[in-house]
Amino acid sequence: MSDLDVLFEHHLWATRTLIEHCQTLTPEQLQSSSPGTYGAIVPTLIHIVAEDQRLLQRLTGESAEVVVTEGDDLTLERLHEIWLGQSERWRAVLKARETLDVTLPARGPWPEVPGARPLVLLEAIQHSNDHRTHVNTVLSVNNLPFPYLCGWMFWRSTGRVTAGS
User: Fold this and answer.
1) Which of 39, 57, 56 is nearest to 47 (CA)?
2) Residue 16 contacts residue 83 (beta carbons within 8 Å)
3) Which residue of 6, 10, 72, 95 shows the fewest CB atoms closer than 10 Å?
4) What are phi and psi of 110, to 5 degrees?
5) Cβ atoms of 49 and 69 closer than 8 Å
6) Residue 153 and residue 163: Cα distance in Å, rounded?
């Protein structure tokens, strides 16, 4: 497994783990928010999945089987199911990444960006990290338990290292 594959496996694991953790919260807890974050927990998770789909589409030219957009009224169970499918899509895209020639068209103040595959991959990692941190901030400032989504916890989840080693 390449270093990039490990980074994306962490990305897939961390979002799945966060959605699963949030499934244990009450409806009232899911309404929690905090200044300086995207907003309430469920809309933030929906945004993570929606933007992730848009980035995959920029890489492949293909939209998701079930398109998620901000403002959708999705249960966390449904979002989890969509994320599992999206994770498989990422794995397939990463296997074929060297064949992808991505040019981003000019948009607003942004110029056309040829050879943008690395940029889109970088944005997928950075964007989700940022918003997963928002959710954990909301949980923390509202005195709710939050999952540790760091590389160490991911590595432990793979069985490569145990608590005693």
Assistant:
1) 39
2) yes
3) 95
4) -90, 130
5) no
6) 10
What's the pTM value of the predicted model, to 2 decimals?
0.94
CA–CA dist 112, 115 (Å, integer): 10
Helix H or strand E segment including 78:
helix 76-95
Separation between Cα atoms, residue 25 and residue 29, nearest integer Å: 6
Residue 121 CA to residue 104 CA, distance in Å, equals 13
Query: Residue 164: what pLDDT?
Result: 64
Give pLDDT < 70 ranges for the chain.
Answer: 163-165
Give the gyration radius of the chain's Cα atoms. Answer: 16
| Residue 94 exposure: Cα atoms within 13 Å on the Cβ side | 21
Strand partners, 110: 107
**Among candidates 14, 5, 159, which has minimal Cα distance to 83?**
14
